[in-house]
Every structure is written in structure tokens, then in C-alpha cells.
Amino acid sequence: MTVATKIEEAGFKPASRIASIGVSTILQIGARANAMKREGLPVIILGAGEPDFDTPDNVKEAAKAAIDRGETKYTALDGTPELKKAIAGKFKRENGIDYALDEITVATGAKQILFNAFMASINPGDEVIIPTPYWTSYSDIVEVCGGVPVLIPCDANAGFRLKADQLEKAITAKTRWLLLNSPSNPSGAAYSKADYLPLIEVLLRHPHVWLMVDDMYEHIVYDGFQFTTPVAIEQSLKSRTLTVNGVSKAYAMTGWRIGYAGGPKALIKAMAVIQSQATSCPSSVSQAAAVAALNGPQDFLGGRKASFQHRRDLVVGRLNAIEGLDCLVPEGAFYTFSGCAGVLGTTTPSGKSIATDADFCAYLLDDAHVAVVPGSAFGLSPYFRISYATSEADLVEALNRIERACAALRR
């Protein structure tokens, strides 16, 4: 037997740290839906977590100018001074938080910010409290870094928000972090100052627990909702809070891959160590574009927010008119997280049983050619997520199909 044959028979053995982790359900559904489209099926995909607007022109021009100036080399490890100054200005101007430049980090997307922070701070067995529904990567990143996700269900009756008594009960001597996301992907729920205050009181009683807040959808809030972030409410939390943000959603820059955060200097320094051995600096051109985004005109944000709100109202209204579905009105982001308990226990026209939200979403894709994501992917069932960051025409057609599909179920 040759050496090559022995290697082939042995096969690949994945590291134990990823044994329980797979490719995101969202990506899997998207891949299947796109394959169906390539086969000629009229699939409408409502799973994408990115705005359907274009990157603002001034941002694109800034990137082109950076290229023309030759700014195509390595930059400082965790962000250029120019971008860190722009981020510090944003935090001061919009959030009322003062961060020095050595309290700011920049990475290749907010996902890397989270990874760097957890990798730099979690020891095996450390616990991270995560309210569900949650963005699918949160728990997987914690596990890869050796931590233990402590998932706390927060259903529609709680407005998809964590309550103080739940937080108090979940904290143990092993708790390292609490991770909050407002407005939320997938629910669109947001924490007001009144919502945050009881949670802050709990954190103040447990000084060993650090707080990570993902504010990525900060600029996409509706009905006059006043966005805030915990450090702006309680400055004493600044010494143990990482405030995460980025340019992906507000500025429609998902592909530019720039995330940033403000936090304690020691944590930021430790995160730089992780980044230095992973990706090194973010793209120089993307950083120049992000400076223009943060320092440039912000007036376009209102128009885009109004467009999203119009589509939100369309989707929520139509979903709540469908028998078996129940949808809260989200305060922000561009998702609905609709309950589908009313369709469980039904049978499809082809005789398949709908026992779970995953079954229901598979039915919508197979029979109605509408791709949505089951709540189980976000840690809470029975719900499903729709992204309404797509054209109104596609939304109307998709909702028509969902309505017909639900009407065709046998009860």
C-alpha cells in the first residue's frame, strides 16, 4: 500500500473545536435557493442580511482617490489613525462616548471584531450569556474560542428582549460576557433606555461580567425610536464594555468588510494580538472609504430608513393577515421574525407533515419558491425570518405566494 493510499484512507479529521459547528443555515438555504434559480425556477430569496441600496457615491469616490494616491499597502494593524479618528468622532457625536484612539479597533467586518474579542478573553469553560433569537454566528464563535454559550429564550411575549430576572438567574461564577444586539438580527427588536436600565442594574451587581453590544443596525430604527447604547447610559460600564459597530448596514458597505469597536485599552491591545496572527490589517482602500462614510454627509440615511419602514409595514401587515402566522412590529433593522405555531400540525398538499418551523420554511421554498430562514437557525422556534431588504415588487409577490401556500395547508 502506497503512502498516498494510506493518506486517502485515513481521510481528513477535523479539529474537535468545530465538531459541533456547521456552515450557517442561512448560507445553506441561500445556496439551495440560488441553485433552484439557476435551474430556471422563479425563486424569491428573502434571506439576505444586506441592504439593497448602493454604497454612497462619496464613499466610492474616496476609495478611488485612495487607490490613485497609492494607498494600497499595509496599514497600521488595527486601523489607520485617520479611520480611528473618524470612529472616535462618530462615538462622540452620535453616542456621547469618548474613546481614545488606543481604545478603538478596526477589523475585517464586525464578525472578526467578535472573534478577536472572544479569542482574546475567553478561557475554556467560560460562559457567555446570549439572548435568543440571536445572530447565528454568536454561539458558534463562542464555541470555537472555547467558551460555553448560555442561551436565554426571549420570545414574542417578551418582545424578543432579555429581562433583568432572566439575566440575574443566568449569571454564574463562570460568566465572562453578556452579548446583546440592538436592533436585533433576526427579530428587529431594540432596547430603549428604559429596557437597558434594569439590565445595567444587574451588571453593576456583578462586576466580573463584561458586556458586548452589537450596534450594527443603529441607524435603522423606526417610529421615532430613540437609539442608545449602554455606555451612553452608564459611563461606569465603559471599563468592561466592548461597543461593536461597522459600516456594513447603514452605509450599504457589506462587501467592503469594515467593522470597528470601542473598549478598554487592555482588551483592544489583546484583540490586536489575535488579529496580528490572523488577518493583519483590514483593506487599506476599504478603510479610506469608511473614513468618508463616517465623516461625510449623513442626510441620505433618513430616506433609506423611510424606505425600509414602508417595506416593514407592508410585510408585517400582510403576515398578520395570514391564518396561522403572527408577527410583532420590529423597532429596527430590516427583518421580521414571525411566529408560525399556527401552521404546525398541518399537512402540505403533497402529504408532508409540518411539524417544525424548518418544515414550514422547506415547504415555502419547495412549493412556493420563497426562501426564508427558520427560527431554529437563530435559536428560537417556531418562528421564521424574512429580510425585507429587497424590492417591494418581490416582497408583494413573495407574500402572495406565502398566503396561497398557507391557505393550501390541510388542517
UniProtKB/TrEMBL annotation:
<dbReference type="InterPro" id="IPR015424">
    <property type="entry name" value="PyrdxlP-dep_Trfase"/>
</dbReference>
<keyword id="KW-0032">Aminotransferase</keyword>
<dbReference type="GO" id="GO:0004069">
    <property type="term" value="F:L-aspartate:2-oxoglutarate aminotransferase activity"/>
</dbReference>
<dbReference type="InterPro" id="IPR004839">
    <property type="entry name" value="Aminotransferase_I/II_large"/>
</dbReference>
<comment type="subunit">
    <text>Homodimer.</text>
</comment>
<comment type="similarity">
    <text>Belongs to the class-I pyridoxal-phosphate-dependent aminotransferase family.</text>
</comment>
<dbReference type="InterPro" id="IPR004838">
    <property type="entry name" value="NHTrfase_class1_PyrdxlP-BS"/>
</dbReference>
<dbReference type="GO" id="GO:0006520">
    <property type="term" value="P:amino acid metabolic process"/>
</dbReference>
<dbReference type="Pfam" id="PF00155">
    <property type="entry name" value="Aminotran_1_2"/>
</dbReference>
<keyword id="KW-0808">Transferase</keyword>
<dbReference type="InterPro" id="IPR015422">
    <property type="entry name" value="PyrdxlP-dep_Trfase_small"/>
</dbReference>
<feature type="domain" description="Aminotransferase class I/classII large">
    <location>
        <begin position="43"/>
        <end position="402"/>
    </location>
</feature>
<protein>
    <recommendedName>
        <fullName>Aminotransferase</fullName>
        <ecNumber>2.6.1.-</ecNumber>
    </recommendedName>
</protein>
<keyword id="KW-0663">Pyridoxal phosphate</keyword>
<dbReference type="InterPro" id="IPR015421">
    <property type="entry name" value="PyrdxlP-dep_Trfase_major"/>
</dbReference>
<dbReference type="GO" id="GO:0030170">
    <property type="term" value="F:pyridoxal phosphate binding"/>
</dbReference>
<dbReference type="InterPro" id="IPR050596">
    <property type="entry name" value="AspAT/PAT-like"/>
</dbReference>
